Amino acid sequence: MIEMKNVYKKYQNGVVAANGIDVEIKQGEFVYVVGPSGAGKSTFIKMMYREERPSSGDIIVNGVNLATLKNKRVPLLRRQLGVVFQDFKLLPKLNVYENIAFALEVIEESPKVIRKRVTDVLELVGLKHKARMFPNELSGGEQQRVAIARSIVNNPKVVIADEPTGNLDPETSWEIMNIFEEINNRGTTIVMATHNKEIVNTVRHRVIAIEGGLIMRDELGGDYGYES
């Protein structure tokens, strides 16, 4: 599903964020990406949805090589992925239903399909009763649930989450984690960058630890391994 081959990323300021990374993530896996601040985690995650481009090497996601993908094809790629951010990135002037439906409207899905899919994902994240509310009327946890619903409404094969519980309290973080578990149980590949030591150590999955742009650990059922 995701493969990186000898990937290097050097920024203009001289910082090397990826230093010859080789990794393969299979369909249906749940992978945590951990490491200290500035280790290269965000770059690793951003290269998967072409927010960042490698300086050299190949990144293949769902059969597409992102290193050679033309810029005009990037929006099409992102429609096939689900991406969840720490700061939600909801559209403030659209209500919950409209925020989620927007992801389907841009690909010109029929109103009938949009209604069904949006209703289904709202049920999954437990927000059907708040469909007509606006982002500023929701708690942080509820906004993140909307962001997750929006990310999966296209039925993506991969969901990439960058610190999805970073701004949330512990109880809400667990609620969000349970939603990701359910999505993964349905066959979707999940790649999650996180600093949440408790979640990583309690709900065991594959752990990729990055330091200095290098993969230092890659183990099934691994622990967090850092002081949080």
UniProtKB/TrEMBL annotation:
Homodimer. Forms a membrane-associated complex with FtsX. Belongs to the ABC transporter superfamily. It is a peripheral membrane protein. InterPro entries: AAA+_ATPase, ABC_transporter-like_ATP-bd, ABC_transporter-like_CS, ABC_transpr_LolD-like, Cell_div_FtsE, P-loop_NTPase. SUPFAM superfamilies: P-loop containing nucleoside triphosphate hydrolases (SSF52540). Pfam families: ABC_tran. This is Cell division ATP-binding protein FtsE. PANTHER family: CELL DIVISION ATP-BINDING PROTEIN FTSE, IMPORT ATP-BINDING PROTEIN. GO terms for biological process: cell division. Part of the ABC transporter FtsEX involved in cellular division. Keywords: ATP-binding, Cell cycle, Cell division, Cell membrane, Membrane, Nucleotide-binding. It comes from Chungangia koreensis. It is found in: Cell membrane. GO terms for molecular function: ATP binding. It comes from the Bacteria. Gene3D superfamilies: P-loop containing nucleotide triphosphate hydrolases. Residues 2-228 form the ABC transporter domain.
